[in-house]
Automatic annotation (TrEMBL):
Residues 224-484 form the AB hydrolase-1 domain. The keyword Hydrolase applies. This is Alpha/beta hydrolase. Keywords: Hydrolase. One of its GO terms (molecular function) is hydrolase activity. Pfam families: Abhydrolase_6. It comes from the Bacteria. Gene3D superfamilies: alpha/beta hydrolase. It comes from Luteolibacter soli. SUPFAM superfamilies: alpha/beta-Hydrolases (SSF53474).
Length: 495
């Protein structure tokens, strides 16, 4: 009992969703000359703070079509590689209007005005089904480019893709704010934090499992997939994502994808759904399979999410099938859809594009917490996944006697994510013995104060690196762990 407060605190630290935006009232000196306003000077190429502020304030309500203002003819760049079309966003706001609490602010000096680009996700474009449903926000840097005869072109640069531009024959670094636009998305998604718990105790998840691209797809940057742990959501990756975006080498090389899944189901069941959704996403983004981004994938996973991640890089062959079923797949009475589901669930193939997996506090051999009184109490509140249970009930009706005695519980509504983490469970033992396939490198990060996953469970035979940091179960929040993740991400491809 004395460990309960510490355990609850450890869970909170592992699953927290930091970051809040607070609007601020700016106090700035006025630097305009007697004959020109700050906005006029911005239109003529001035980049001092007063001119930037004036341009940012004007952009909030400016018409994004050709217009006349104080003798200037103003038009927006139509958009293209690294530049947003003026009509893409519902609204633009200067990042200087906000301060962030809960995340370290990351800004860069340069020309242009850092903005939050806000767009409601109305699924107007096909790719938006893969963007966060709560909102689409982008780090934008606006630059006013003077032209002949008092003409001005406004360019809305995608700061994630463009670092410098050439003006007047000289390369110029673009100003940037990566934190405020990200915090704006986190604010919109804050209600998702509650689903980390509600999706476990309820039979209905408030959100379907799926991937979310939190930046525009780039065919040249490697996907970095983040998979959260038990009782958690992708909001847990906020701090790490903010720090990774602040590193120019990582920002140039990777694009962040996040995966959300309800954590009441057994990890291997969730893993099957995730693999199928990943295949679907990759096919949608690159139908021909020629994009450099599709040739290599890196995964970061925490706790239970690490079991989903490992499934991407192992070859089970018949190890699970023989343990669960009494007869071959080909002999069962199944519909085509049921056959396909079972084949992918038990005989799946490793995804060869997965280059590296960073496992953070992952219970490869289960967790004694699942066997403790707290775990047993938790099992009473964790709701079984109806789809999971109903599927096996349906096929067993047509195939009586198909399950081995040890797996009769598959149809009895007793298998949940917590139950599946019991040490020495048959499936856990089988999965633990499966090595990562050649070509995929594993890296391990653990917390020295982890009350959920001891070192005996979180180690990975054959791992390329292993690091223990002074942290609890939320090891990936630790500064040493963040530094280690950055080091791994900058390694050469594993294959």
């Amino acid at each position: 009992m004395r460990h309960l407060p510490i355990i609850l605190l450890s869970l909170a630290v592992a699953t927290c969703a930091p970051a809040r935006l607070e609007r601020i009232t700016e106090k700035r000196p006025h630097h305009a000359t007697a004959s020109q306003s700050d906005l006029d000077r911005a239109f003529e190429g001035a980049t001092d703070p007063a001119a930037k502020h004036a341009l940012g304030d004007w952009l909030q309500s400016a018409p994004r079509s050709q217009s006349l203002l104080d003798g200037y003819t103003i038009h927006f760049h139509p958009g293209g590689n690294g530049i947003f079309a003026p009509t893409y966003f519902d609204r633009l706001e200067p990042t200087s209007h906000y301060k962030v609490t809960g995340l370290t602010p990351h800004q860069l000096e340069g020309i242009g005005v850092p903005l939050i680009g806000h767009r409601e996700n109305r699924h107007q474009q096909p790719v938006e089904r893969w963007y966060p449903p709560e909102a689409i926000t982008r780090a934008v840097t606006a630059v006013a480019v003077p032209g002949p005869g008092h003409t001005v072109e406004i360019r809305l640069y995608n700061r994630a893709k463009t670092e410098t531009i050439t003006l007047g024959g000289k390369p110029q670094p673009l100003a940037a704010d990566f934190t405020v636009p990200f915090a704006a998305l986190l604010e919109k998604a804050r209600p998702l934090a509650r689903s980390g718990i509600t999706a476990v105790i309820s039979r209905k998840s408030p959100r379907e499992a799926g991937f979310a691209l939190i930046e525009e797809y780039d065919p040249n940057r490697t996907p970095l997939i983040c998979i959260h742990g038990l009782f958690s959501t992708p909001l847990a990756w906020a701090e790490l994502t903010n720090e990774l975006w602040a590193d120019p080498a990582i920002r140039r090389r990777y694009q962040v994808w996040q995966y959300l899944y309800p954590t009441n189901s057994p990890a291997l069941y969730s893993a099957r759904i995730m693999r199928g959704q990943l295949d679907e996403l990759r096919k949608f983004l690159d139908p021909d399979g020629h994009d450099p981004a599709m040739q290599r994938t890196v995964v970061i996973a925490h706790s239970n999410g690490g079991l989903l991640a490992k499934s991407l890089a192992v070859d089970p062959r018949n190890a699970f099938w023989d343990a669960v079923f009494t007869r071959p797949l080909s002999s069962l009475n199944l519909t085509r859809s049921e056959h396909k589901t079972l084949d992918e669930a038990f005989y799946w193939k490793p995804r060869t594009h997965v280059d590296r997996i960073i496992f953070c506090s992952v219970p490869f051999r289960g967790s004694n917490w699942a066997n403790s009184w707290i775990g047993k109490l938790g099992q009473r509140f964790v709701a079984p996944d109806d789809k999971f249970q109903d599927f096996f009930r349906q096929i067993e009706k047509k195939n009586p006697g198909m399950l081995q005695p040890a797996y009769q519980s598959l149809t009895q509504g007793k298998i949940t994510s917590v139950v599946a983490l019991t040490p020495k469970g048959r499936s856990m033992e089988i999965f633990d013995r499966l090595p990562l396939v050649p070509g995929t490198k594993g890296h391990v990060i653990t917390g020295s104060h982890d009350l959920f996953v001891p070192p005996s469970s979180s180690s990975l035979p054959g791992a390329e690196s292993s690091l223990q940091v002074p942290a609890g179960h939320g090891s990936f929040h630790n500064p040493q762990a963040i530094a280690e993740i950055k080091r791994i991400l900058l390694l050469p491809p594993a294959h």
